[in-house]
Amino acid sequence: VGDRGWEVHHVTVTRVPGYGFGIAVSGGRDNPHFINGDPAIAISDVLKAGPAEGKLHVNDRIISANGVSLEGADYAQAVRVLRDSGHTVLLVVKRRIQNVQTSSGSPSTPPGHRLTLTRNNKKDDFGIVLGCRLYVREVTREGTGAKPGDIVTRIGSVTAENMSLKEAKKIMDQCKDRLSIVVSRDCSNSNSHNHHQSSGKVGEGGGEYLSGASYSSQNLYVPPPTRQTLEDKSNLAPRGRSRGPLMDVSLSQLDLPATPTVDPPRPPPPRLEDYYSSRRQLYEEETALGQRSSKQPMPDPRFITFQKEGSVGVRLTGGNETGVFVTAVQPGSPAALQGLQPGDKILKVNDMDMKGVTREEAVLFLLSLQEQIDLIVQYRRQDYEQVVGSGRGDSFHIKTHFHYEQPEKGEMSFRSGDVFHVVDTLHNGVVGSWQVFRIGRNNQEVQKGIIPNKARAEELATAQFNATKKELSASESRGSFFRRRRGSHRRSKSLGRDHWDDVVFSDSVSKFPAYERVVLRHTGFIRPVVLFGPVADLAREKLLKDFPDKFTSP
Question: Which GO terms describe its cellular component (predicted)?
Fold first, then answer.
């Protein structure tokens, strides 16, 4: 046993392909604890099923590695020593002594206090005033970091003491996509101190990320909820597995000195943004199609080249959302002889990057190539099976700029200005039609159907604009100059709203493409609303009363 409350362990860890030493470290002289300034190098994560699991614990302080002292070392020096330790490293670490157990085997808990309150008559009180406290009754989604029984002490910047449930709900409803809360957790609900506070921010992923900025002097960390997404990310992984060196992980959030009756807390894992860009891009690709197990590292990309003989002999699946995958290869074709196989993700075709390319665009580009075809592919069977199983592929939105009122059999009609969600640009495996969902009110998908693809739509729109232009030119050529003006004036009055664009843009075929790619955006600022009329005051009061979360009076 070393210092009071600490014990020293000698641990030997062997490097394993795909894991490295299976640990991540934080701290250092140049990156000390943000409150107490502890400069120790600490274990911040231990990969599940890795070589260090069961040997090292999160929050272990590393004293030395292979005889090289790391006490007082900066972060970069510690990582360099560990990476250069060879196949095996002997670590000397110190660890907080575990909880002192009672005779029954459970941690000792403070005894309760039984009080007897009296009063002289029913009209008097008992000498105390009870208050209501907000607490977490139930956790409906995993990964939030909250636990049932947590006492909520602050919601956003407002203290939750004596706050009613209705007031708390109103504050939470006013938050858009991020909410910061502070909770208090007693020892019966967790292994931390009696009053553990945490600040949780609900981000886009719906999870809660703990922040040390609002911790009190007694605060300890709870296990971070997002560790699963980082199980295959070790900042001591072997160089062969990583596609680039890993950046120094800035983790200064180590636990504070605790009594021997407290379990060592867990600091947060390495932050995702602390990896180099190549690593971050790899993580984003894996997240889009499901997280990949650390036991199955991706194969290296392959270069395949062959001479086109007639057809390409390849069938594709996927699209701009998931990437383009090979789903079938004609036996005996040049592509098959060169090793192209189902499950290969096409990264490049003749130096053309296939990222964001729709399935139709990929097929048309392959068909347009004449002789030699050069492919860079990567075998990603797991991602391929997810694409096939989910039916995902293409996904983007378009806005139409022409009328399609006499559709072909099986297709939907539409008007200029309609919005569609395109989910398949190669419907039934044939070029010419797109499978879409019509977007109705409140941006809901209201109807599924087929519309012409972009090439056909351009032809239809061109023909429509040319016909309108010809009709307007013929009508304006009749009569004198004044009659043409009067006729144009009368005609403009009779034109409906749907045909007004035809007149405005009659001097050219079209000011817009037949289909325009669009993205739904929500304004990130408060917009002023001005009400006029005799009931403006009543309308303003009703809006403020019925929708206090959406309207406010300046």
Answer: bicellular tight junction; plasma membrane
Q: What are phi and psi of 289, to 5 degrees?
A: -120, 15
* Radius of gyration in angstroms for the set of CA atoms belonging to the chain, rounded to a whole number: 33
CA separation for the pair 422, 450 (Å, rounded): 9
Domains of the chain from N-terminus onward: 6-99+232-280 (2.30.42.10), 151-229 (no CATH), 302-390 (2.30.42.10), 523-554 (no CATH)
Q: How confident is the model over 161-183, as pLDDT tens digits?
A: 767 777 787 778 777 677 778 88
| pTM for this prediction | 0.42
Q: Cα–Cα distances in Å, from 215 out to 46, 73, 187, 210?
A: 24, 26, 17, 10
Residues recorded for the chain: 554
Cα separations in angstroms, 9 against 4, 24, 77, 94, 131: 15, 18, 22, 6, 48
Residue 301 tokens, joined: 């990309």
**What torsion, rounded to 10 degrees, do the Cα atoms 10, 16, 18, 22 define?**
0
Q: Summarize pLDDT for 80-115 with one digit per residue, the tens.
A: 899 888 889 999 999 988 654 444 444 444 555 667
10 phi, psi to nearest 5 deg: -105, 115
